[in-house]
Design goal:
One of its GO terms (molecular function) is DNA-binding transcription factor activity, RNA polymerase II-specific. This protein has 15 helices and no strands.
């Protein structure tokens, strides 16, 4: 091989395999973020290296589990790219073309599912693969059914009177139930609770929102409502179990899901109407973004007043992790103001959303402590930005364009 600097070098097969494995992991990490957030794929066309790596021959000797996840993500990229082109062509409105294409994509999913089942059976029967670790949790199934759930979410974008729309959304409901049950089995592992990628948490929230949407519509009469409520409660409980610190991703998710359920119940949504989405510009993430906008609009009085900030916060994550606001709290503090799991979906659920006086006193004390430290940070769960602002960082000038290197560090004589 030869690079642009005219240096010739040789790459051993082991080095090439390691590089492809790293590139595959980077691809999966990047595309799971874009797909779960409702963005178009970063790789609009399949990378030739990834295409060769995903072939049946496994040319680069990628570990079997990583190979399965790569194939799933390549398939999901195909789904999002295809549906994005169709939706853009029709102004993100319902179309017969989208309905037809969804049928073909579901057939492709069944083929992928059969390929994975065959590969999994070979993996368990082949004892010669000693370098592949054995896990108690079948993580590949979570990836697989998460992709299936994102595919079936596109049925929300079909014409309301379409027969295939109703059938597709009912299949989506049962897929969401499956994802939650798989996640429940996975969270029994302590390592999974601590180390699971954020994508799994996003899919858990997605599944809970699917249940909430179907259960508050005319389709509720065609599903087991009690089982759906129980699964929704379970999703909130799992987010709490996966919480590492106050106001982290899972902590916020558990709070928002509880509020959204009460909002749907107390606002007397038309349970005789078909489930629809008013926001349909975020591909399979449209459901997530519509409900988050609904939550933000309802609790706008508690939102952060960005006028007093002057500019968006630019503190680094490492600084946030060591900020006094994090050190003064723990996951146990946030659970005092959360809705009990058993109350969700019941007649007394909304009353449980109010914080008890003891918890409010603790939050007030934390705010006082932060002010004494010169850090007016709030632990308000609705304040989605203030926790990330470290005021004393501004004095250093590290995060603003007028900051320059010291002349002693330029290397000039």
């Amino acid at each position: 091989m030869q690079s642009f600097n005219r240096v010739r070098f040789q790459v051993q097969s082991e080095q090439l395999e390691e590089a492809v494995k790293l590139w595959t992991s980077c691809f999966i990490a990047a595309e799971t973020i874009t797909s779960s957030d409702g963005q178009e794929p970063l790789f609009s066309s399949t990378d030739c290296t990834l295409r060769l790596a995903s072939n049946e021959g496994n040319y680069y000797n990628i570990p079997q589990r990583l190979l399965h996840i790569l194939r799933i993500q390549l398939y999901l990229n195909k789904v999002n790219a295809t549906m994005s082109s169709i939706l853009n062509a029709h102004g993100h409105g319902p179309s017969d073309e989208a309905e037809t294409m969804l049928a073909y994509l579901e057939e492709d999913f069944h083929m992928l599912e059969q390929t994975m089942e065959k590969g999994s059976s070979e993996l368990h029967t082949d004892s010669s693969i000693s370098r592949v670790p054995v896990y108690d949790v079948n993580v590949e199934l979570i990836w697989l059914f998460s992709a299936k759930m994102q595919l079936q979410t596109y049925h929300f974008l079909q014409p309301v009177k379409s027969v295939t729309r109703k059938q597709g959304l009912l299949r989506l409901y049962h897929t969401a139930m499956t994802v939650i049950s798989q996640m429940k089995a996975a969270t029994a592992s302590v390592d999974f609770r601590r180390c699971a990628p954020r994508y799994f948490g996003q899919m858990l929230k997605h599944a809970a929102l699917v249940l909430m949407k179907i259960l508050h519509s005319s389709y509720a009469r065609m599903v087991d409502v009690d089982a759906g409520k129980q699964a929704f409660n379970l999703a909130i409980a799992m987010h709490r179990d996966m919480t590492l610190e106050t106001n982290d991703f899972h902590d916020r998710a558990s709070t928002i899901l509880g509020h959204l359920w009460s909002l749907h119940r107390d606002s007397h949504f038309n349970t005789r109407a078909d489930p629809i989405l008013k926001l349909n510009t975020r591909l399979s993430g449209s459901l997530l973004h519509e409900t988050l906008w609904m939550w933000r609009d309802r609790y706008s009085a508690d939102a952060l007043d960005t006028q007093r900030l002057g500019r968006p916060p630019r503190a680094l994550p490492s600084i946030v992790q060591h900020s006094p606001s994090v050190a003064t709290s723990s996951p146990g503090d946030s659970r005092k103001v959360m809705q009990p799991e058993s109350d969700l979906g019941t007649t007394g659920g909304s009353a449980s959303l109010q914080a008890d006086p003891g918890a409010a006193t603790n939050l007030d004390q934390m705010s006082i402590d932060n002010e004494q430290l010169g850090l007016p940070l709030s632990l308000n769960p609705f304040d989605m930005m203030n926790t990330y602002l470290a005021p004393d960082i501004e004095a250093s000038g590290l995060f603003y364009p007028d900051w320059m290197w010291d002349e002693n560090l330029t290397g000039a004589p």
